[in-house]
Amino acid sequence: MASDERHRTGGEPPEELTEEQAGRMLAAANEVIRAGEEARGLRAELIKLLTGLGWTQERIARLADMSQPAVSRHVVKFHADGPRPAVDLSLDQNDAPWLEGRLWALAETIAHTLNGTALCTRYTDALARGRKRFTPRNVDELRRLVEEDLRLHRAELPGGCQDVYDRIGRALDVPPKEAATPAAPPSVRRALAHRIQRDRFEGAARSPREGAGQ
Hints:
Elements lengths: L1 H8 L9 H34 L4 H8 L3 H14 L14 H18 L7 H8 L7 H18 L7 H13 L12 H21 L8
């Protein structure tokens, strides 16, 4: 029987797919699906946020590369949920998702500056692609990598990186005793802080007088 199999295939009989191999493929597929679901959820929340800020459906649809009817469905849900408190966009806020977003932006800035050779590069890529989540353990690991990159490459990095990390680290180590309820879900606050901090670094690079963060 084995010789017949080799004759038909022109070589060795095919190996069986192991349970471990199948598990890895399914886990990889699940990561892609989960990342897509989380991205869609974040986009929906951002549409609600922009609607609350008074942006028109046409403007949101253009920026999100969506049809206006698709945006309209999100807007209907926004109005059904009732009004939300105004979102604070100041950089110096101390809830965990906001600080995680700033840390993520700092790590990305380090990775970009060092042309992908930073220790934190793979971690930031995994976060961006949804392969890792912002769990306490993952945040601690990202902090460790950022600290090491700052120690090894401080002279090569933009001014203010160490100061920004120190502020983020202190706030993460000593969370506020009575934290106010944020006006947006954690994923949205993380994304906002990430974008604002990245823009602050980029602005500081263009104009040295502009600081990278408070």
